[in-house]
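Give me the fold.
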Amino acid sequence: MNINDIRPANGKLGVMVVGCGAVATTFMTGVMMARRGLAKPIGSMTQYDKIRVGCGDNEQRLHYSDIVPLAKLDDLVFGTWDVYPQNAYQAAVYAKVLDMRDIEPVRDELEKIVPMKAAFDKNYVKRLDGDNVKDCCTRWDMVEALRHDIQQFKIANNCDRLVMIWAASTEIYVPYNEQYHGSLQALERAMKDDDRSHVAPSMCYAYAALSEGVPFIMGAPNTTVDIPAMWQLAEKMRVPIAGKDFKTGQTLVKSGFAPIISTRCLGLNGWFSTNILGNRDGMVLDEPENFRTKEVSKLSTLETILRKEDQPDLYGNYCHQVRINYYPPRNDNKEGWDNIDIFGWMGYPMQVKINFLCRDSILAAPLLLDLCLLSDLAARAGRYGIQRFLSFFLKSPMHDYTKGEIAVNNLYQQYTMLKNAIREMGGYEPDEKLD
């Protein structure tokens, strides 16, 4: 690709965030503080990482923005939907992620962000009781109402482009069903028939975004865009999509440590992961049906890195379990424990213990920034459909499972995919391959 083929990042980029809770407000507050020079966007690949480009005497290590045209932080405009009516300042204070000294300097900006009424179905998130919700008779009415919101937001904020990112709660598990999700026509029919069992509210957001030509990013493990019907819509409208589930704490560690086991040809008997989390996300996941959605996402990581088909002696019969426990005293300060039972020479057992005391929203916020900026870049570069190069940021990367494609979960392979995509869009040759 020639860099001249990418449309410049002129004008304002509207970032429409579904959910105005801890993750969303930490993200928005951090961007606002960073562009005033009052904080640094640490953890953001687009703001800090450098990629090697060129070779020989022409070899350089450049920031992403020196290779491809990224939107600037000053050009971001935020909007949200939420079931609770509190503005972003009130929501940030309530979330108790950031200290007041890091919220007050941008209070004026945050107070102006008042959530639009959410497209919501309590059956999908039973633990939430907000009343800032749309009065929609059918799923198709939800789509039409959301499309109107998108159109009005773009006009009101004089935006040149938009992206939409899901930072709301995990919905109950909706398994892929070919009858309803296998084609765009089938999904549209289900929406118009108000099929509430097979069409989650998040699907209405995604459908509305793609219909308006807006890239959509799924930050929870919801099925949403991970169905052929949405892939077809994204290709029809020539819009990028990405998902699922922000890769923040325990899965980040897992996707980085599992390759150590496989590269060293060590065996695995079992991997037990447990978490304690006290924020709204933890409360929602305390509901078994919602946890099931998260469990499917978290379990998928190991199975694609330590494959029994490739090494039956090493990975033919290991036990992998994941638990999340709602523990209110920790609020957003998540703690993850991993017990890893491995074996080595002649089958002798060993153990690895990992205890990660992390901050959920602090790790998630830079992912939102990177995913929004890179999805916007992809759109301007003419890329559409599933953006596999964004797998680095996501816990359960999208892939075409209907054709037997296997997701790439190895963190280092994902990083290679990311770097090569940036190189290619910047007019450089991809110079690393996945083994």
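The chain has 16 helices and 13 strands.
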